[in-house]
Amino acid sequence: LAAPLAGVGGGAASATPSTCDGAGCVPYVRADAQPGGHCTQNPRYNFGFDASGNTLACNSKSTWVSSPQLVGVRTLSSPCESAGV
C-alpha cells in the first residue's frame, strides 16, 4: 500500500510532486500496534507496525489486523513504476 501525498505535512503544496520509498516515509503510523490489540478508528491513517515491523491496519471492529506492507508515499493518482507499488 502507498499512502497518498496529498495533504501530508500541512504546509504549502509543492509545485513538483515527490515520492518516498519505504514504510518509514508514511506519516501517522503507530509504532506500538499489537496484532489483535485494541485500536481507535480514524477517518485516515489507520496503520501501525508491530514489534517485528509487520504492517497492521485498524479494522472496523477497532482491532489491529495484518495488512499488506506499506511501500512509501506517492502523489495521488500518479502512475506506479512497477507492479504492486
Sum up the structure in keywords.
85 residues; mainly beta; 6 strands; elongated
Structure description:
- The protein has a domain at 23-66.
- The protein is elongated, with a radius of gyration of 14 Å.
- It has a 3-stranded mixed sheet, with no helix packed on it. Strands 3-4-5 form a 3-stranded antiparallel sheet, with no helix packed on it.
- It has strands at 2-4, 20-21, 47-49, 55-58, 64-66, 72-74.
- The chain is mainly beta.
Give the biggest sheet. Answer: 3 strands, mixed
Shape: elongated
Give the uncertain stretches in residue-range form: 5-15
Note the gap between the termini: 7 Å
Radius of gyration (Å): 14 Å
Q: Largest sheet, order of strands side by side?
A: 1-6-2
- The percent range for helix content is under 10%
Structural class: mainly beta
Sheet-strand content, in percent, reads 15-25%
- How many E-type strands? 6
- Mean of residue pLDDT values: 80
- Counting DSSP H or I runs of 4 or more residues, the number of helices is 0
Q: What order do the SSEs take from the amino end to the carboxyl end, as H and E?
A: EEEEEE
In short:
This protein has strands spanning 2-4, 20-21, 47-49, 55-58, 64-66, 72-74.
What's the structural blueprint in terms of helices and strands?
Elements: E1 2-4, E2 20-21, E3 47-49, E4 55-58, E5 64-66, E6 72-74
Parallel strand pairs: 1-6
Antiparallel strand pairs: 2-6, 3-4, 4-5
